[in-house]
Design goal:
oxidoreductase, 477 residues, Double-stranded beta-helix, disordered C terminus, single chain, oxidoreductase activity, 13 helices, disordered N terminus, alpha+beta, 7-stranded mixed beta sheet, TauD/TfdA-like
């Protein structure tokens, strides 16, 4: 998969560009996923109309989630994983957690859990409930008057996490304490969510603005305001956050910047079976950056091949380890330039089964990373950060199929005009997310989580360094 906001809107490309700056010469212009226009090309008209509060009854097994996340790390190099079924735990009180400074203390993002083999496209199970469920503090009335918002959330923890599994995303509206980072942290700790690093933390795509609370900025930079962030999971083939919580600290001052989500199970359900069968059989490969080494063409014949091999190997050894993304460096894959070196993930399935429920879901960042689609909507990513999606054999995915996938994704987009203090909690294996373009100043943020319940053991040692994140955010942005 891929990641950027949360999907990786060319994040690896940004760092690859940084390496190119050091070793090849071209200057790097940082880019990353960013907002999208309120009405970009190919945008569907579907908008979120859900309202009110609907509480489920099943409690989510936090021990099961911890086991799933632990399994994720063990399965990091495996293409399949055993489906773990949940069991409702006995009702227990939520233990108080000591607030501490999380700077430098976050564990790495857990490994992606793959269970993508032998999915019967013709017999997909029905989608009973979809995203988002809305919980509005203004409609809770006396329930909230019995204590603080934190106490209410803590008391409802099992119910909320069960609802999250049923719907894929929950929109918490009109809560007061989540308008500031410390209150937002109280919110996610009341749910016993354990924060972790972004899947592509080392890329520098998102700066961690509130390190003590594990809060990343959600691509609010003015230079990226005109860039549409398409639908994606916060995922690569190697790493995937289990949950994410997006919070609005400040709406865009001049409009736009709406948060977008779409249910991966519904996307799968609505897709043409023939298109789905083709892309599932052929698999996908995602290109995360372009490095145009055109100077190689001017070298003498005897030097050109050896120089090409040298830079291919150099970039791979220097850049790829910083991403842990299962990358291959390939020349000329897009047929536009024989000296364009692309960092491309290996073949992966566009469909995955949810690691807890076993529900097949669209688990693919094509809507965000397809160059064909990016070229037809607001995009401010420089060439080095332009992404693309190919078939597993690196051939082009038929444009008719790309257009159909886009139409289905757009049909399922829920547009969420979050207000100050609003939080969207999402299941990152079930729901894709994105963002509209905006104008003015905007401050949205996100925290990623490895698990729910007791923190995973022995994960503190599995941390990548902050070198590239600090370099890009301090010197190149």
């Amino acid at each position: 998969m891929s990641s950027d906001s949360f999907s990786r809107v060319g994040v690896a490309g940004l760092v690859a560009g940084a390496a190119a700056t050091a070793f090849v010469g071209p200057a790097l212009s940082r880019s990353a996923p960013s907002p999208a226009g309120a009405a970009p090309a190919f945008r569907g008209t579907s908008q979120s109309t859900a309202s009110g509060v609907s509480f489920g009854t099943a409690a989510l097994g936090t021990a099961t989630l911890a086991a799933v996340a632990t399994s994720a790390r063990k399965q990091r190099t495996s293409r399949t994983a055993k489906v773990v079924r949940q069991q409702a735990p006995p009702s227990t009180a939520v233990a108080e957690r000591k607030t501490e400074d999380l700077t430098g203390a976050l564990p790495d993002c857990p490994g992606t859990i793959w269970n993508a083999e032998d999915i019967d496209i013709k017999k997909l199970p029905p989608v009973k409930q979809t995203a988002p469920l809305i919980i509005d503090a203004a409609e809770l009335g006396d329930e909230l008057k019995k204590g603080t918002e934190k106490q209410w959330v803590a008391a409802q923890k099992d119910k909320i996490m069960a609802q999250l599994q049923d719907h894929g995303a929950i929109w918490f509206r009109n809560f007061e304490t989540t308008k500031q980072p410390d209150g937002f942290r109280e919110f996610y700790e009341a749910l016993q969510l354990n924060p972790c690093l972004d899947p592509i933390h080392t890329s520098g795509l998102r700066a961690m603005e509130e390190k003590k609370h594990a809060v990343y900025e959600a691509v609010n930079k003015p230079s990226l305001a005109g860039h549409f962030v398409g639908l994606h999971n916060e995922s690569t083939f190697v790493k995937t956050a289990t949950y994410g919580a997006f919070v609005c600290f400040k709406q865009a001052s001049e409009g736009g910047g709406e948060f977008l989500i779409a249910d991966g199970a519904k996307i799968l359900e609505d897709m043409d079976p023939a298109v789905l069968e083709r892309i599932y059989t052929n698999k996908v490969r995602i290109s995360v950056s372009n490095l145009d080494l055109n100077f190689l063409g001017s070298l003498p014949d005897g030097m050109r091949e050896s120089a090409s091999d040298f830079f291919q190997d150099l970039i791979f050894k220097v850049v790829a380890p910083k991403f842990d993304m299962d990358l291959e460096m390939v020349y000329g894959a897009d047929q536009s330039n024989p000296y364009r070196l692309q960092a491309i993930e290996h073949a992966q399935s566009p469909i995955n089964k949810h690691p807890v429920t076993g529900q097949p879901v669209w688990f693919c960042n094509l809507h965000n990373h397809s160059r064909y689609l990016r070229d037809r909507r607001p995009c401010t990513v420089p060439e080095v950060g332009m992404t693309d999606v190919y078939s597993g054999d690196l051939s082009a995915i038929p444009y008719d199929d790309v257009r159909h996938i886009n139409e289905v994704c757009e049909k399922n987009i829920q547009v969420m005009a979050m207000k100050e203090g609003d939080v969207v909690l999402l299941d990152n294996y079930r729901v894709l997310h994105g963002r509209n373009t905006f104008k003015g100043d905007r401050k949205h943020a996100v925290t990623w989580f490895e698990s729910c319940g007791e923190p995973l053991a022995n994960n503190q040692k599995q941390k990548p360094d902050d070198f590239m994140n600090e370099l890009i955010n301090k010197t190149l942005v």
